[in-house]
Specification:
This protein has about 400 residues and is of the alpha/beta class. The protein contains ten helices and 15 strands. It folds into three domains: about 250 residues, Metallo-dependent phosphatases (Purple Acid Phosphatase, chain A, domain 2); about 70 residues; about 55 residues, no CATH class. The strands form three sheets. Strands 4-3-2-1-11-12 form a six-stranded mixed β-sheet. Helix 1 packs parallel to helix 2, helix 5 runs parallel beside helix 6 and helix 9 packs antiparallel against helix 10. It is globular. It binds manganese (II) ion (MN).
Length: about 400
């Protein structure tokens, strides 16, 4: 059987609030689903953040329903895990990935993997395939994530070695090996029982082998932010197809509907660069979709932000959906450097005393514990107690 693995989709996301960008994702998602049907996949796995928010727009839900209905008609099962964007912050609220399960026609076709239901297994041609997964766990729930993975590992390693197994793990987490700043989990903490680990969340495309395990980050299907533009200037969405019989995988790419153009130049060459860009823009309209432009400009000629902006506006007017700019000038760098120096000279304690005369001790403690959530919580409770006592004492004489 073929499994299709799809990274963060973020249905309902409208980059810079533009409905054109919201529609780009709907369109691409439908295109990807058609490709998956054409590939004759038997199961499609989503790595979390199918929706951009836990209360997505109606259109996002209807697009998802249509795609899932199409999968059901073609006998394609869907396996989902919840990402940090899908999970509602209020526990009693429903996670939007539950919605398709409420439709009778696809109810049996959609499987949500979570701590409550960690493994979906099937046997085909004498191969036991275990597709395992849990929902996103924030850094403070690291220990329960590690425990859940141990549970999965012991439940799937009960099988005797004479049988052939293909073990796949789906995660929506930051992994230390790919993003050192993440405090969530590292590969050494994941039991060594998986052939593949597919990871959503980071939005980047990366791959790594760790022992017997192949770790693959297919990346988000679309480009969501400036950092993604710079880090992965691509014009194709990527779906991973795993063949459960051979254990091999391939990457299927689907062209994005809108062009992204990234240019980096110095202001001394701005007229030349913008003239070239204007020519490129004319050729970059696809199906009446205007390109998205990202410019990084170093103001070496010191012509100033307002003139740079004016030149860009004149060169791109009517030919782009959006121009995102980052102008680096010495003037700004100087200012930033100065703020940094003066900030270092400041005594935080004195500042806090000035701003919070009554609670300065507690606020300073809070400031010191700002990176330690449980410590900060204790301090907040202390502040609240003190506030409550003061408040009651102030109120009493009036009664
Ligand atoms: Mn995401």
């Amino acid at each position: 059987m073929k499994l299709a693995i799809i990274g963060d989709v973020h249905l309902g996301k409208a980059q810079k609030g533009l409905s054109e960008r919201e529609d780009d994702i709907y369109e691409l998602f439908s295109k990807i689903s058609e490709q998956v049907i054409e590939e004759k996949a038997g199961i499609v796995c989503f790595l979390g953040d199918l929706f951009d928010s836990s209360h997505p727009p109606v259109k996002a839900i209807s697009v998802a329903m249509n795609v899932f209905e199409n999968f059901a008609k073609n006998n394609i099962k869907v396996i989902l895990i919840a990402g940090n964007h899908d999970i509602p912050s209020i526990k009693t609220r429903m996670c939007p990935i539950e919605l398709p399960k409420m439709n009778e026609n696809m109810n049996n076709n959609i499987i949500e993997l979570s701590v409550q239901n960690q493994v979906f297994k099937f046997n085909e041609n004498n191969i036991n395939v275990h597709i395992c997964g849990v929902e996103y766990h924030p850094p403070e729930k690291r220990q329960s994530l590690i425990k859940a993975l141990e549970n999965i590992s012991s439940s799937i390693s009960l099988k005797s070695d004479s049988e052939k197994n293909l073990n796949i793990l789906l995660l929506h987490q930051g992994l230390k090996e790919f993003s050192p700043a993440e405090e969530e989990i590292s590969l050494t903490e994941i039991p060594n029982v998986f052939d593949f680990i597919f990871v959503g969340h980071l939005h980047l495309r990366m791959e790594k082998s760790h022992g017997r395990t192949h770790i693959i980050l297919p990346g988000s299907i679309e480009i969501g932010s400036v950092s993604e533009v710079v880090k992965q200037m691509h014009n194709k969405a990527r779906v991973i197809i795993v063949n459960t019989e051979t254990g091999m995988y391939e990457k299927v790419e689907i062209l994005l509907s809108r062009k992204f153009i990234h240019k980096k130049f110095q202001s001394s060459a701005i007229d030349y660069e913008l003239k070239n860009l204007a020519g490129e823009l004319e050729k970059s309209v696809v199906d009446r979709k205007l390109p998205w432009v990202y410019l990084e400009i170093e103001d070496d000629a010191k012509i100033g932000n307002s003139l740079i902006n004016e030149k860009i506006a004149r060169a791109t007017e009517g030919k782009v959906l959006f121009v995102q700019k980052e102008i680096n000038s010495e003037e700004i760098n100087e200012r930033e450097k100065n703020t940094e120096i003066s900030f270092k000279d400041v005594n935080i304690r004195d500042i806090i005393r000035g701003y919070f005369p009554k609670y300065n001790e507690e606020v300073y403690e809070l400031y010191e514990k700002r990176k330690d959530i449980s410590g900060a919580k204790e301090v907040m409770e202390k502040i609240y107690e003190k506030f409550k006592n003061n408040y009651v004492r102030q109120k009493l004489p009036e009664m």
